[in-house]
Design a protein that fits this description.
single chain, five-stranded mixed sheet, four-stranded mixed sheet, 15 strands
């Protein structure tokens, strides 16, 4: 069987490819595929404990079995609700400057009493080193799907009215916004809680990665490993 394989962030740099195709025997699992690439690119094995995987844009356990035509993505650490999003909600991934004021105005409604925003922008340093600029990349289709899931989860958990979650990709200059979240509600407590939930969940689960550039080099920012079920090391038991 044949599967499509995607690599992101540091893993893409190690392999030298963002996309590849692999021929596998029937019954092969994600761990078999990763081991195959590990033999070709030994540095991949150093990241095994922190790599997550997905099948067809859903996080999957390394012991998950593959089928012909699957799209498998290997994801470095990243920096589902049932309710449908409202037409006025905004979930977007963009390579353009985020129109913060325009989005904020669009979420205000007469029945609201609060609008809480999170504006995440590029700072000029990282652990004491002057930062020149940032670059963000993503597994775009999956990232947007996960952002929409976060929006639906916010509606289940909090009494909110409207939601906007926008993340920018590509080069970000110092002071420019990389992620913007806005939540409107009748009362401030729900909007505060939902906004905090959104950014914390996004940083844990959405496959977006940040690279910091300095005068003397660049590094990928350390992130959080996605859900544990997506990342069981060899020998671990699965309940």
């Amino acid at each position: 069987m044949r599967v499509r394989v995607l690599f992101f962030g540091q893993l893409r740099e190690i392999t030298g490819v963002g996309e590849d195709f692999a021929e596998l025997s029937e019954g092969a699992r994600i761990e078999d595929l990763y081991e195959r690439y590990g033999r070709r690119f030994p540095r991949l094995l150093e990241f095994r404990a922190s790599v997550a995987a997905s099948i067809n844009q859903e996080y999957s356990n390394f012991r998950s079995q593959l089928s012909s035509g699957d799209e498998v993505a290997f994801l470095p650490p990243v920096s589902g609700g049932q309710q449908a999003a409202r037409a006025s909600d905004l979930f977007e991934i963009t390579r353009s400057a985020i129109p913060i004021e325009e989005i904020s105005r669009s979420l205000r409604a007469p029945e609201d009493g609060a609008l809480v925003v999170f504006d995440g922008f590029a700072r000029n340093n990282f652990r004491g080193r002057p930062t020149l600029y940032l670059e963000y990349e993503a597994y775009e289709e999956m990232a947007l799907a996960k952002i929409r899931e976060i929006g639906a989860q916010m509606r289940e958990k909090f009494g909110i009215h409207r939601v906007a979650i926008v993340h920018r990709l590509g080069r970000i200059e110092i002071g420019e916004t990389s992620v913007f979240i806005a939540v409107s509600s009748a009362h401030r407590a729900a909007a505060f809680d939902a906004c905090r939930y959104a950014i914390d969940t996004l940083k844990r689960t959405v496959p977006i990665w940040k690279k910091e550039f300095f005068a003397d080099g660049a590094i990928w920012a350390e992130g959080e490993v996605p859900p544990a079920t997506a990342n069981s090391a060899p020998g671990e038991s699965i309940s």
